[in-house]
Write a structure and sequence with these properties.
By secondary structure, the chain is of the alpha+beta class. It has a single domain, classed as Roll (Pnp Oxidase, Chain A), CATH 2.30.110. The longest helix is centred in the last third of the chain and has 11 residues.
Length: 148
């Protein structure tokens, strides 16, 4: 068994900034939903593009949500997980949207009209890793393959 270690804020932010795929948790009237999303980090905030009529857009706007990103290596039984929590807000200002597009617009893997920008400011950020740090750091840049 590997030892569980807390990650520092800077380690958690570094891992978060290197990723593009995560899962966002939102509460709807029928209970919690975990939704895979593409994201970018712009000015200390997570940016997500979604369709205006999704569960995330309907119940996530102006609500407290959590985004989780991780990487695991089953062979070495090591990995890490970073969770960001905060209030998701809709980005409406045209200048802000232009800034997001210049700095790092999220590129959704799924097709469809994803013209609603949600911002999750990094109010709460935590991370943990299990196993040796060397294999975990090698997992930083790995992204899961798209589901076909």
């Amino acid at each position: 068994m590997g030892t569980l270690h807390d990650l520092s804020q800077s380690q958690s932010r570094a891992l978060l900034s290197e990723g593009t795929v995560g899962r966002i948790a939102v509460i709807a009237p029928d209970g919690p939903h975990i939704i895979p999303v593409n994201y970018t980090l712009v000015d200390e905030a997570i940016i997500i593009r979604t369709s205006p009529y999704t569960v995330l857009a309907t119940y996530g706007r102006d609500a407290v949500v959590a985004l989780e990103v991780d990487a695991i290596d089953r062979a070495t039984r090591s990995g890490w997980s970073v969770v960001a929590r905060g209030r998701a807000e809709v980005v409406l200002d045209g200048r802000e949207i232009q800034h997001i597009r210049q700095v790092g617009e999220p590129a959704p893997w799924a097709d469809g009209n994803r013209n609603l920008f949600l911002r999750l400011r990094l109010c709460e950020l935590s991370g943990r890793r299990v196993g040796d740090p060397a294999p975990v750091s090698a997992l930083r840049s790995r992204e899961p393959e798209p589901v076909r």
